[in-house]
Amino acid sequence: MLAIFSGAVVRAPEELVQAGNRTPTPKKSANRLFDTFVRKFSSSVAINIDPLARISYTHETESLMKPRSFAVKDDIFCTFEGALENLASLKQQYGLGKHTNEVVLAMEAYRALRDRAPYSTNHMLSHLVGKFAFIIFDRSTSSVFIASDQDGKIPLFLGITADGCLAFSNDAEILRDACGKSLASFPPGCFFSTNTGLRSYEHPKNKVTAEMAAEEEICGATFKIERPNLQATAE
């Protein structure tokens, strides 16, 4: 799956900008990245929501245990990869029908988060049990919401294109060719939104920081969740 968002929708993490500046490498524009993905996966579905967002997904190379799906409703676009172990109980929690799948559940959970403030993001995401990564674009508010499971079982990467767009994909190779060293793996147990940037829902009190990666690494930066200093706490 691939999603690309313009600078009018999201602000790219400064650490990715620094990683790209530290080791300048060739990049591609958002248009070329999107075209490359669609050409690589000939059966992919492409949705162009100009000038704000572009989304594409494919069933090629997907795992039977971690399927990919896409849905759109009321200007909420969502692509989902993986499976929720507690889908049945979540459908009851959100008052959804028995035939509801993961992608629709993710959309409805996001809608509840958006419309029922101060409904907690950390609370909502921590209740999702399973292997998953999903990307949501809400055209009505021009905002994005992206999350990954706590163990990072579904690969997800983010990078900055030559024209400053922020891209997310499970295909590291395609992002590397388009984003150069302005590339990082999406950290497990975290979410990214237009309003908050990158945050941890698994450890909500801890900051998400980045380290510059070694030159030989594919990614230019590595995001990590700060852990409390246990020695200082004990003292």
Automatic annotation (TrEMBL):
InterPro entries: DUF3700, Ntn_hydrolases_N, TSJT1-like
Database matches in Pfam families: DUF3700
Any coiled-coil regions, as ranges: none
Limits of the DUF3700 domain: 2-225
Official protein name in the record: Stem-specific protein TSJT1
Organism: Elaeis guineensis var. tenera (Oil palm)
